[in-house]
Automatic annotation (TrEMBL):
SUPFAM superfamilies the record matches: Nucleotide-diphospho-sugar transferases
Record bears the keyword Transmembrane helix: yes
Protein name listed in UniProt: Glycosyltransferase
Sorted UniProt keywords: Membrane, Transferase, Transmembrane, Transmembrane helix
TM segment ranges: 370-390, 397-419
Length: 434
């Protein structure tokens, strides 16, 4: 998602002002026009996730015209699974294989430059579309406004129960018991029933799912939704399921090929969103459709947090004029994005402020109440926002409470993100990429 770390005072005030001052943007209405769409799924060792992604494309009210899966050097049976799934979907499936991993950006570039379709839909292999009208809704946004460079829906965590339900309703009936598209999934679902698997899940992944559910509510339902009201665009898309204007995407790739190559920061979707905003184009969040994505374990969480947070700061550095502009004008390229970026930058220093308070506490310069006060302010603000933007508020409150230990566990990573990006800048290191 990409914010440096927490949402604290300045971001809360800015987004709260947007909610009170400006009305929500009207939903796009489809005109019935259906431009050609090519979908691309970059995959690396995704035999147990990619069937969900592909079948979710097949159940769309407006499915893509064709799908390209880029097997980026997998060592499992990802390729065999893709080959086996062809017969159960209503579009052509092309499998491209890289002998060694080249990264998600390289895979998207390869397909975008070779394609002729007007729209390109990028879907992560560990993500599936929850709403059957997902692509139809995103196409409607592109039809509504010629300045739309990309459109995307809401993200929700994918749980074991969700995947098991999708398997029963959409996959079991499409493929035989020995089909390579079905076997890995059935084996995984059966393994979930063992006591050891359940224990590992509830200790290592379930808390992260609850934390991410709260994080997504705040990021999408409050921050991005407020930016849509303030600027008419989000700063960047939720990169696991995005419909791009293919020509504009290729223009960005070509524009930074000589200077950056495939290293478009540690999360390419954030860089692309900033690049589009820099050109006066828009990144549209569609609130009425959603996708579900796999979440990391507690052990894997810090790395993903670093990738997202650092990519935000790296993108803000590359697009410094956009990131520091606090006054707007009639030109869409002069929207005052700096108000949002600078607010997030200051609020992202909160973990460092917390660590400084701990140090001062150890030196007996401040009292313990200062530390508790800072923690209580941030956590309560975060929980209140998560509940306020949720439809099921009791469930949202429970999720916010369960996610508190995970959020505390994450706080030191906020300081690490800032320190490492600053160190990279001082050393002249720009080899940023997944």
């Amino acid at each position: 998602m990409g914010a440096p770390m927490p949402i604290l005072g300045l971001s809360t005030m800015l987004c709260g002002y947007a909610k009170l001052r400006y009305g929500a943007l009207p939903a796009a209405v489809s005109t019935g026009a259906q431009p050609d769409v090519v979908a691309v799924i970059p995959a690396l060792n995704e035999e147990r996730t990619i069937p969900y992604a592909i079948v979710s494309l097949a159940t769309q009210t407006v499915p893509p015209d064709r799908l390209v899966v880029v097997d980026d050097g997998s060592t499992d049976s990802t390729g065999d699974v893709v080959e086996g799934i062809r017969s159960g979907v209503p579009f052509d499936v092309e499998l491209r294989t890289h002998e060694t991993p080249r990264g998600k950006t390289a895979s998207i570039k390869e397909v975008a430059r070779a394609a002729t379709e007007e729209r390109l839909f990028v879907l992560d292999a560990d993500t599936y579309l929850e709403s059957e009208t997902y692509l139809e809704a995103l196409l409607g946004e592109h039809e509504r406004d010629d300045d739309v460079a990309c459109a995307f829906g809401r993200v929700r965590p994918s749980t074991r129960a969700d995947k098991a339900a999708v398997f029963d309703s959409e996959i079991r009936g499409r493929y035989g018991e020995d089909d390579p598209a079905r076997v890995p999934l059935e084996e995984e679902i059966e393994s979930w029933e063992t006591p050891g698997s359940k224990l590992r899940y509830y200790l290592g992944r379930w808390p992260v799912e609850r934390y991410r559910d709260t994080l997504y509510r705040v990021e999408q339902g409050f921050i991005k939704e407020a930016y849509m009201r303030l600027f008419g665009t989000a700063l960047f898309p939720a990169g696991c399921g995005v419909l791009y204007d293919r020509e504009r995407l290729v223009e960005v790739f070509d524009g930074y090929e000589a200077s950056l190559g495939d290293n478009l920061t540690n999360s390419e979707d954030i860089f692309l969103g900033f690049a589009f905003a820099h050109r006066g184009l828009t990144n549209v969040q569609v609130d009425r459709v959603s996708m579900r994505t796999a979440e990391p374990s507690l052990r894997e969480l810090p790395r993903q947090t670093y990738l997202w947070g650092s990519a935000y700061l790296q993108s803000a550095y590359y697009f410094r004029r956009l990131s520091t502009r606090v006054r707007g004008g009639d030109d869409p390229r002069r929207r005052p994005y700096g108000r949002a970026v600078l607010a997030q930058f200051v609020d992202g220093l909160y973990p460092s402020m917390l660590l400084l308070t701990v140090a001062l506490l150890a030196l007996q310069i401040v009292d313990l109440e200062w530390l508790f006060g800072l923690l209580a302010f941030e956590l309560s603000t975060y929980a209140v926002i998560a509940v306020a933007v949720a439809r099921e508020r009791k469930r949202a409150l429970l999720g916010a409470l369960v996610s508190v230990p995970v959020r505390l566990f994450q706080l030191p990573m906020g300081t690490y993100v800032y320190l490492r990006v600053v160190a990279d800048l001082l050393r002249g290191n720009r080899s940023w990429g997944k």
